[in-house]
Amino acid sequence: MNIHVSNVSKSFDHHLVIKDITFSISSGEICCLLGPSGSGKTTLIRLMIGAIPADAGAIHFNESQNPKMSLLKEIGFMPQNDALYDDLSAEGNLKFFGGLFQMTKSSLEVRIKEALEIVELTEHRKKLVKNFSGGMKKRLSLAAAILHSPKILFLDEPTVGIDPVLRRKIWDQFQVLKQSGTTIIVSTHVMDEVTECDKAALIYDGSLIEFDTVANLLKKTQNGRVEELFFTASKISKGGAVQ
Ligand SMILES: Nc1ncnc2c1ncn2[C@@H]1O[C@H](COP(=O)(O)OP(=O)(O)OP(=O)(O)O)[C@@H](O)[C@H]1O
Question: 64-66 and 56-61: which strand pairing?
Fold first, then answer.
């Protein structure tokens, strides 16, 4: 599904935190949201999934404006802070989330098995989540987000606390999802992950200061290094030109 964000703004307590943001992402693209802490990445994701209403502007998935009930099943969301039930097992959590998406018993069973394999939690499926490490919770959250095979996947810092080997595996999985047409929006502070993405949105203090392909953005930096994108962001925000 394509995503169109048009002139979206959002304030909290009279403080404007998302400022007239417009961009588009095509089906099967991976777009990362880059910006310093507090720049508005999570808020933008929450606006896109329809968890909070925009004060102005609109968000469309293909031709349909979100939020819309019929679009719910098309959206997968992995929040920054895991939204899991501590007193349920890994499998119990996935059954619960699958139930929300009204998956049939048989497809739920198949998808739980697949999702647990992807995040390497098969052997821990019966364990209560309260006994999970932070990284295991993160992986289970990811399994919950992809369980219903959403057409759009929103990931808010998905690999924090995950070791490099599994992070590589998870990104391989994102690339597989992309190949099958899933559109992925991911906020990240991990530099290596930026080069996995097709497009990047640089956000600073609630404004979209750059939106382009990662290849084009890297060409605009002084040394072609991903880290420079962050410095670019702050230079632009201070009125400096991109060198
Ligand atoms: N529910 C809320 N009520 C009031 N202010 C909020 C709320 N949610 C976010 N904010 C404010 O909006 C701004 C953007 O926050 P947001 O969490 O979107 O940033 P972020 O880029 O995701 O940061 P991080 O990288 O640290 O997760 C911050 O100033 C934050 O304090």
Answer: antiparallel
